[in-house]
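Re: [ENG-882] Designed sequences occasionally contain unexpected residues at chain ends

Forwarding the minimal case from QA. Structure tokens:
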């Protein structure tokens, strides 16, 4: 009587145990193969995390500074000559219904120097502007040290320096004097940098009455800053030029500084796409490394494969064993890359003072992508192992 041969299915635990044979016995080779996947996933996590952290920082800054600021400035005509705003521009813009706040700075004919011994041509690119008292309120700006102009100091030889202008003039503290417009001016304060009005960083600001009386200002606004209701900003932008200069609206420049910050963030997003493409190349290289390791492993373990086939293991079971080895290396590389990338994001965000942010899809997708890449890379070696003949494998072992 002939005994019936019963096929035995391997339990998942047994398959996992078989899949761990390669990584356990060839630790260094497996680690180097997983390193390629690890670097690719780490690059993806780091790039997307840093980009998300930067965006979170930008949104926080826009919320703090306000995205409803509109700048109206004198522009150029067809002959590229500056056309000043009319004297009534500031008042007319303030009469637009959705406008909440309005302020302005005016041009002067004065130059500022560290002292009266500096040659006149060495201006350090610092401009002298007349400023309204509510300038900081409208721009949501603040003073780094000292104080802003008030109703008394705006009529006196007192100035407030922008952040960069203080550095260029070598002024480190309030109370120091600078040579401005042919006389000494006392520095009352130094401003913090302002992203929405960077022109103030390179300026020396004086009171409007003082600039008009002693520094050659004609009382005309060079730049007008408006705060409008957020939902009405586009409408105000559409009528601002015609309101400021009805006779020549094409010579008026109207901008929204927050749009510049958003555009800068989009430009950084383009760079992020490039880096992600490089990370994809790293993943591809990692997959090729795993495939190469598995092919070499199949060749080296022909004796093991032949013995298992001779003992009754089917080709599919052998294929699953080697495919699991590839998947395990990919999973280890993916988890390692996730840890390395997350650590990089948090360290960089901490150094920049940003809120750390890692997209959830990166956390979930990193190991998944690495497993898929490793699985694809392991298909050919697994198929090659499954097709090995038991007798040929034992003979060549």
């Amino acid at each position: 009587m002939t005994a019936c041969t019963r096929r035995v299915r391997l339990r998942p635990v047994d398959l996992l145990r078989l899949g761990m044979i390669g990584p356990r016995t060839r630790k260094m080779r497996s680690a180097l193969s997983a390193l390629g996947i690890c670097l690719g996933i780490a690059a993806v996590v780091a790039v997307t995390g840093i980009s998300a952290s930067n965006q979170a920082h930008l949104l926080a800054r826009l919320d703090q500074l306000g995205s409803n600021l509109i700048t109206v400035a004198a522009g150029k005509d067809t002959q590229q000559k500056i056309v000043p705003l009319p004297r009534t521009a500031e008042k007319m813009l303030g009469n637009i219904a959705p406008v909440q706040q309005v302020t302005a700075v005016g041009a002067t004919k004065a130059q500022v120097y560290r002292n009266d011994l500096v040659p006149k041509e060495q201006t350090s690119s610092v401009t002298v502007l007349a400023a309204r008292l509510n300038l900081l309120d409208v721009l949501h700006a603040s003073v780094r040290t000292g104080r802003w102009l008030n109703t008394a100091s705006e009529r006196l030889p007192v100035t407030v320096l922008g952040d960069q202008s203080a550095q260029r003039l070598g002024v480190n503290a309030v109370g120091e004097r600078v040579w401005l417009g042919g006389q000494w001016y006392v520095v009352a304060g130094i401003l913090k940098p302002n992203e929405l009005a960077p022109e103030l960083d390179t300026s020396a600001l004086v009171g409007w009455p003082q600039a008009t009386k002693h520094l050659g200002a004609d009382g005309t606004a060079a730049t007008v800053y408006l705060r409008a209701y957020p939902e009405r900003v586009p409408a105000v932008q559409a009528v601002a030029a015609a309101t400021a200069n009805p006779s020549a609206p094409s010579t008026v420049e109207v901008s929204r500084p927050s749009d510049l910050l958003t555009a800068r963030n989009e430009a950084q997003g383009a760079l992020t796409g490039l880096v992600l493409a490089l990370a994809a190349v790293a993943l591809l290289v990692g997959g090729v490394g795993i495939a190469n390791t598995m092919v070499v492993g199949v060749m080296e373990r022909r004796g093991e494969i032949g013995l298992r086939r001779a003992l009754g293991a089917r080709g599919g079971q052998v294929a699953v064993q080697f495919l699991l080895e590839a998947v395990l290396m990919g999973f280890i590389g993916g988890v390692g890359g996730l840890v390395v990338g997350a650590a990089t994001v948090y360290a960089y965000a901490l150094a920049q003072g940003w809120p750390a942010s890692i997209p959830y899809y990166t956390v979930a997708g990193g190991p998944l992508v690495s497993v898929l890449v490793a699985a694809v890379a392991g298909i050919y070696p697994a198929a090659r192992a499954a097709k090995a003949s038991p007798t040929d494998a034992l003979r060549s072992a």
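QA comment: On inspection the terminal residues look reasonable. The chain has 13 helices and eleven strands. Proposing we downgrade this to a documentation issue.
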